[in-house]
Fold this sequence. Notes:
7-stranded mixed β-sheet; 6 helices
Amino acid sequence: MEKMLEIRWHGRGGQGAKTAATLLADVALSEGKYSQGFPEYGPERMGAPMRGFTRISDTPIRVHCGIYHPGIIAVLDETLFEVVDILEGASEDTKLVVNTPCSPAELRVKYNIKGYHVFTVEATLISIEELGRDMPNTPMLGALAKIASAPKLDTLIKDLDKKFSHKFSRKVIDDNIRAVKRAYEEVKGE
């Protein structure tokens, strides 16, 4: 990695964007990287729009603020396009990964997205089928592992196994690992 990778997460309260942002930062530490992962809340209630931030770097991170020019934007709920400026601060090189049943081309048309590298994954469907509930954050981590320069899928899976082993049953851990792997394989891009 030549420069710092900055990821801005957009989700709704209760979808796990905060958890994903901080978990991804923890996984980067396992790869010997420097990282930060933190949320930014608005009204702190279930379903309210919120943002999370992850920074990953080979060198110490000296900046401690929100991410204004993300390299990747991860959207856990596509309805946020209607209420939040998801692409604020994005450049032509920004990668946009969205939880949606739409293809990248369909998403471009639906929200008039011009430019950017667009990726889509059905994280909600994957989470319902693999976890038994709508929790798109874990599949989105798998999609990010596919499109980003960090983390490696193997490291992500090992860290999930280790971190979740203190909280969840083996079945829950295995379900989450399957969701990550499935999203890694199913993410589509153009």
